[in-house]
Specification:
Largest sheet: 8 strands, mixed
Distance between the termini: 37 Å
CATH class of the largest domain: Alpha Beta
Number of domains: 2
Structural class: alpha+beta
Order of helices and strands: EHEEHEEEHEHEEEEHEEEEHHEEEEHHHH
Radius of gyration: 21 Å
Number of strands: 19
Length: 388
């Protein structure tokens, strides 16, 4: 079984790359077989949601994925309010003043997966291997050979690692990863809110904890609350009424009383980055290459931008050029180096800044929010950097 590209990992990033790699034969290797989810109910939301930037939405639209999402489950973000930990400092972003229709779209994980798979069904020269797990990877001058645990083997001129933070491809290629635990867990849940959210996303920095409430259809919001591991375990053990009260209080009752509508879940937070994104016949995308704190909501967007750039490099390569040629792959690595480094440094810097218990830093960071809020050009620059 010979392919131009073998994509290891069939999540959002791997599936989007497989769809975008036009003109190439693709093997998509995933741990889970694809199964259509049950029909979405208007009163049931996924625990996991994504803030999809306009740039990522344009990429998904180009892949013919965006029109497959149910419009009634897409929520545009028209404004964002970020509060410091002193109760007074505030930084506001507005789509209209930024010159865009929306700052982001809030999309549920299950619905985005389903739309991607429906789009993949229309792709020629794609073979899906699932459930499948990689056992060995060997790279030669002409091709890479993959052996799966079920005994099947396949050859590809390029192997794309889209297999997450614990990437088999990254380890097999000998690409080191720098990892560090944040000592925090992201608690996610969805709530019905007493007051309309008005398509506004809210975020509160609390001197360590970071709470975000993101708009969902109707009077509903999705919560992402990054807390210390011990605090998160306590939150996950609360009954629905107690958790709702604590979130309402932490959000300063901005949306009135809250009522839990989906059980909370916890995700341990880690930082990961790699010194290089490519090796001979290997390229890394998404969480296999970098993992950032969710406080900026940019993890999925970074992955989609990786997929878009790598696919573009391959599609635009010279006629007859080997897609696994390391010099070709370095075009992708160079294009992604600055955006990935800048986003990682910004997100980690914000985390360290607001996690500090220093009184001097507390005054400085809150003053910085207020100062930035009074500088329209700086705000517009920051917003445009985030929307991709």
């Amino acid at each position: 079984m010979d392919f131009d590209v073998a994509v290891i990992g069939s999540g959002l990033v791997g599936a989007s790359f497989a769809r975008a790699a036009r003109g190439l034969s693709v093997a998509l290797v995933g741990a889970e077989p694809h199964a259509a989810p049950p029909a979405a109910r208007p009163d049931a939301f996924d625990a996991r949601i994504y803030a999809i930037s306009p740039g990522s939405a344009a990429f998904l639209r180009d892949l013919k994925v965006w029109p497959l999402l149910p419009r009634e489950r897409l929520t545009p973000v028209h404004a964002m309010r970020i509060y410091g930990d002193d109760g007074r400092s505030l930084l506001e972003f507005d789509a209209y003043r930024t010159g865009v229709a929306e700052l982001a779209w809030i999309v549920e994980d299950r619905l985005l997966h389903e739309a991607l798979w429906r789009a993949l069904e229309a792709r020629d020269h794609l073979e899906h291997f699932a459930p499948a797990e990689c056992e060995a990877l060997e790279v030669s001058e002409r091709a890479a050979s993959l052996r799966l645990r079920d005994g099947r083997s396949l050859n590809a001129r390029l192997v794309v690692g889209a297999d997450g933070a614990h990437s088999f491809v990254r380890r097999a290629a000998g690409i080191a990863a720098r990892e560090a635990a944040y000592g925090q867990t992201a608690v996610v849940a969805n709530f019905a809110c007493e007051r309309p959210h008005g398509n506004v996303a809210y975020q509160w920095f609390g001197g360590g904890p970071v709470l975000a409430l993101l708009p969902l259809p109707g009077n509903h919001v999705s919560m992402v609350w990054s807390r210390s591991d011990a605090d998160a375990a306590r939150l996950l053990g609360l009954d629905p009424a107690a958790l709702s009260r604590e979130v309402a209080e932490a959000s300063r009752h901005a949306l009135g009383a809250l009522s839990l509508v989906t059980p909370p879940r916890g995700f341990a937070l880690r930082r990961l980055d790699t010194p290089r994104l490519v090796a001979p016949r290997i390229a890394l995308i998404g969480d296999a290459a970098h993992v950032v704190h969710p406080l900026a909501g940019q993890g999925a967007n970074l992955g989609f931008q990786d997929a878009r750039e790598l696919a573009d490099v391959l599609v635009r390569r010279e006629p007859g050029r080997d897609p696994g040629d390391l010099r070709l792959l370095r075009r992708y690595a160079r294009a992604r180096a600055e955006p990935v480094l800048a986003m990682g440094a910004t997100v980690h810097g914000l985390y360290r800044l607001f996690d500090s218990r220093s009184e001097l830093l507390a005054r400085s960071r809150n003053a910085g929010l207020n100062l930035t809020n009074r500088l329209p050009l700086l705000k517009t620059m920051l917003a445009r950097q985030a929307i991709g």
